[in-house]
Design brief:
The chain is an alpha+beta fold. The chain has 4 helices and 8 strands, in the order ββααβββαβαββ.
Length: 182
């Protein structure tokens, strides 16, 4: 699904452009994915686990743009990909297709400037418009900033999976599961 391009004034006064990433953004997207996986443990994979090819990523972005029930919304600052958020169906099966999965990451130079909130709100708006009645996410329990953001936009914690994440250093982190109902 396509997201209509919008500008957003960040807390530092700079402008971010929110839009659906296109096929031509595949190289920037792969670079962003690698970088964000290096910057924080709060995303689902490590840099060495990113194996997508440029062609694969381009095809993926094109499929999302053409989808009726998935969306990617990226934030670009001075042409650089600063953050991305997505909504995707949990399942296409009749009993489960009311549920959507949400994911988001913002690169460190843009933390605390409002991009996470605006991307989250845009995705939730689109999820409701696409007909989903609940949006789900999971996060490391230690991700206090993420937890605060999600709670502020109406997500509720519905469970905790102890040892849900196994980190490289051998430690385990609990996974919080959250949901927002429409």
């Amino acid at each position: 699904m396509l997201y209509e391009e919008r500008e957003f004034r960040m807390k530092n006064g700079e402008t971010a452009v929110l839009r659906t990433p296109r096929r031509g953004d595949a190289k920037a997207m792969l670079s962003y994915i690698r970088r964000m996986s290096e910057e924080t443990v709060f995303v689902g994979r490590y840099p060495e686990e990113i194996t997508e090819t440029l062609e694969y990523e381009a095809d993926f972005l094109e499929q999302c743009a053409e989808s009726k029930n998935s969306i990617q919304i990226s934030a670009f600052v001075d042409g650089e990909l600063a953050g991305n958020a997505s909504i995707s169906p949990f399942s296409e099966r009749m009993k489960l297709r009311h549920r959507a999965d949400f994911g988001i990451a913002v690169l460190q130079p843009w933390w605390g400037l409002g991009l996470g909130r605006v991307l989250t709100e845009a995705c939730l708006e689109m999820a409701e418009a696409m007909g989903f009645t609940q949006v789900e996410l999971s996060l490391l329990k230690t991700n206090e900033k993420g937890l605060k953001l999600y709670q502020s936009v109406g997500f509720e914690t519905w469970g905790e999976l102890k040892n849900g994440f196994h980190l490289k250093d051998g430690t385990y982190e609990s996974e919080l599961c959250m949901v927002k109902y429409f």
